[in-house]
Amino acid sequence: MSETTTGAGNAPRVRARLVDVAELSGVTKSVVSRVLNNDPTLRARPETRERVLEAARELGYRPHAGARALSVARTGTFAFLIPDLTNSVYAVILRGAIRRARELGYVVLIAEDASHAPAGAEEYSELVDAGRVDGLLVASARPESPLVAALVEHPDSVAHVFVNREVPGSRRNVTVDIRGASRLAVEYLASFGHERIGIISGPPDLQPAVARTEGFKSKMADLGLAGDLVAAGDFDEQGGFEAAHELLSRAPEVTALYVSTFGQAVGVLAAAREAGRVVPDDLSVICYDDVPVANYLNPALTTVSMPLNALGVAAVDALMEQVGGAPAASVAIEDHFAVVPRKSVAAPPAS
Amino acid sequence: MSETTTGAGNAPRVRARLVDVAELSGVTKSVVSRVLNNDPTLRARPETRERVLEAARELGYRPHAGARALSVARTGTFAFLIPDLTNSVYAVILRGAIRRARELGYVVLIAEDASHAPAGAEEYSELVDAGRVDGLLVASARPESPLVAALVEHPDSVAHVFVNREVPGSRRNVTVDIRGASRLAVEYLASFGHERIGIISGPPDLQPAVARTEGFKSKMADLGLAGDLVAAGDFDEQGGFEAAHELLSRAPEVTALYVSTFGQAVGVLAAAREAGRVVPDDLSVICYDDVPVANYLNPALTTVSMPLNALGVAAVDALMEQVGGAPAASVAIEDHFAVVPRKSVAAPPAS
DNA sequence: CGGGGTTGCGCAACCGATATTTCAAAGATT
DNA sequence: AATCTTTGAAATATCGGTTGCGCAACCCCG
Fold it and tell me: Residue B351 pLDDT > 50, yes or no?
């Protein structure tokens, strides 16, 4: 609308600078800057403010990010270190983070710290050293990465939060309640009458894996059931397949499985087929984390959904507080998880 | 290594600036800058160069990105506009792009332009106007987004490429050979003896959808087969389910389906089950794009894999050329696709 | 009518780099 | 010995903002 009034419309505009706005409104750039930033120390006539605002609007003025960063020593940028982009769990967290960041005037750039591309940590310090970012969102699942170690040792060197990970010794963990969700999953299975419940866990050196196992065992204990049916595998299809294969042959009496990730669950389903067990008649399966495709597996997979989007939001909020100078504090998102019932859980076989 | 020689080791370092390096090496900052940037117009004694280099190393000097951006009018940043972060297709492209960008000294920031968050386009122009980015990677699937229209009309206003999308009227499309891959899929099905082959296509206003259909029809024609079994649905599970449901009831004689996306294929499998058709005995299914989980569906899904990583790499390379001043040119990745045979394709039923 | 206190805004220094210009000292030339 | 070139590096302007301070003009008051 206002663009057309300039007559320039959608012509290949050149960037308008502060001085351009100043010239057009007949004041100096310092006044323009203060008006646009609502500097309370500035005394200006309302009509002057209005002229400035109007000129800025007319020119489509936007402060140059680099110049501003230079001045105020703030970039308006966060970096997100992610272990695996193709894992939709992280994608959802990232989405929540990006949106929240945008609401706060921040943008986020991505680095991947996959096991096959271990450059992530180094890249991070490059970003920090180059003054490119104001803070780090670290979702790396790799234990004892040099980056994590450095951050734990010098927590104040740069604003940061660990996302979906409880790093020992850090007061900057933003997490969901994995244990609570795991307890809920077990409770759900038990409500169908299952007693011999097993867990497909993850690599024991990964904290999220042990949290699931802890939740599992604690709820089993509360129910007076034996929590000894544990098998560990990688957090992917292959890992789930292998762990389930092993557990099903070691303890064929198991009637229900709590699985740590969706990827694993897909593998578990394959292993169950291979073992000649039909889900859910001969074996019930529930997994941590809900993804859309779960609804279309055969059978449709019962899951417990986690507030991953909220996790991303909370992570950015926590980071913003640090940037704003507030003391660091871990955040745990306690609820907002729920089992989404589908077709992979039923009562145990009569036998 | 060199860090420990400073004695500061891993202490909470403060950023070293150009002047710090200058002071330490006993020259002025202009000399330091030119030495570090290999300015050919600078004449300096080798020993002076060495002193500067050593000082920079010792201080762990890294130029401040904002300051440099201000000076050279380049940010070292690209932005990637992505329609759906949770879609692993885009994740793989993004991964390739990020890695390549990093090799070239660039970082990439993400914006999501989902249908449920249509702010993406606006965010983009904010990024450009604020001088935050040197170029745009546009993978938005949304047809006629205002951003796309603006870029097509003023192609030189900002460096950009369209990724995995053939935008009419643009010379900046970086694509894979969807038609060729589609032809390959059809050929593969035909090699099993299928003649009544159908396609589950996508929204007709999305260019990638029509490309698949075109490839399908052209190969069917080449084979002397009728290419009339077409059903369209959204590119997700739901869309695949609905389209397949419709096609299977409309044309029950179909013996094989070429499906446009993995998400759709999952829905197609569900629809087949619902229709009482067992895959692959009563119905063969192959889909465009390979993802790890395809191997664990029931049955394991035969797919045609695409060079998505290479696509991301090529997109960044094309963008870099534009930034470097080269004339824009579309790029098509012609081969590197292949069918990965699994369990969802077999010979048509004898009947 | 002159002095003190606002009101409203301009001046100029910085932020940390890059790039062009200037200049002192050393060596070559006559 | 006096001038002309080179060599090597210092000065300085600039990029586009932010921010502390200064300073007129205006007001009110005695």
Answer: yes
List the B45 CA – D1 C1' distance (angstroms): 30
Q: Residue A154: its chain B contacts at CB < 8 A?
A: 10-12
Residue with tokens 């780090």: A136
Is the CB of residue A244 less than 8 Å from the CB of residue A252? no
Contacts of B263 in chain A (CB under 8 A): 292-293
Same domain, A226 and A257: yes
> What pLDDT shows up at residue B6?
34
Do A220 and A100 fall within a single domain? no
Per the structure, the residues numbered 40 to 79 in protein chain A that have their CB within 7 angstroms of any atom of strand D are: 41, 61-64, 67-68, 70-72
- The 10s digit of each residue's pLDDT in B229-248 is 999 999 988 999 999 999 99
* Chain C nucleotides reached by a protein CB under 7 Å: 7-12, 14-21
Distance separating alpha carbons of residues A21 and B324, to the nearest angstrom: 30
Q: Which of residues 158-197 of B touch strand D (CB under 7 A)?
A: none
Residue by residue, DSSP assigns A147-195 as HHHHHHHSTTSSEEEEES---TT-S-EEEE-HHHHHHHHHHHHHHTT--
**From the Cβ of A19, is strand D under 7 Å away?**
yes
User: pLDDT band for position B12 (50/70/90)?
Assistant: very low
Asked if B38 CB < 7 A from strand C, the reply is no
**pLDDT tens by residue, A134-190:** 999 999 767 667 888 889 999 999 999 999 988 989 999 999 999 999 999 999 999
Number of domains into which chain B is organized: 3
Alpha-carbon Rg of chain B, whole angstroms?
A: 26
A296 shares its domain with A188: yes
The distance of B16 to chain A (nearest Cα, Å) reads 9
Q: How far is CA A19 from CA A45, A57, A317, B124, B319, in A?
A: 20, 14, 34, 24, 31
Say if A39 falls within a structural domain. yes
How far apart CA B279 and CA B344 sit, in angstroms, is 6
Q: Is B315 in the same domain as B298?
A: no
* Residue A346 within a domain: no
Range of the domain at B104: 75-176+309-333
CA distance A15 to chain B (A): 7
Instruction: For B157, name the nearest residue in chain A, comparing CA atoms only.
Output: A12
Domain membership flag for residue A350: no
Partners of B75 on chain A (C-beta within 8 Å) are 65-66
- What pLDDT shows up at residue B297? 82
pLDDT of residue B242: 96
Q: Of A4-13, B36-45, B95-104, B163-172, which range is least confident?
A: A4-13
The reported pLDDT for the residue numbered B1 is: 35
Q: How many CB atoms lie within 10 A of CB A288?
A: 28
Q: Using the beta-carbon criterion (under 8 Å), do B131 and A66 form an inter-chain contact?
A: yes
**Are residue A55 and residue A93 in the same domain, yes or no?**
no
pLDDT at residue A114, as a whole number: 63
Is A160 within 8 Å of A136 (Cβ atoms)?
yes
B136 and B41 both lie in a single domain: no
Give residue B289's pLDDT band: very low, low, confident or very high (50, 70, 90): very high
Residues B118 and B262 in one domain: no
Interface-testing mutation among B151, B296, B313, with chain A (most A C-beta atoms within 10 A): B296
* Yes or no, beta carbons of A298 and B273 under 8 Å apart: yes
Question: How far apart are alpha carbons B226 and B236 in whole angstroms?
Answer: 26
Residue A237 lies in a domain: yes
User: Across all residues in chain B, what is the average pLDDT?
Assistant: 90
Backbone angles phi, psi at A173, to 5 degrees: -95, 130
Residues of chain A with pLDDT under 70: 1-13, 114-121, 141, 143-144, 351
Say if residue A222 is in the same domain as residue A248: yes
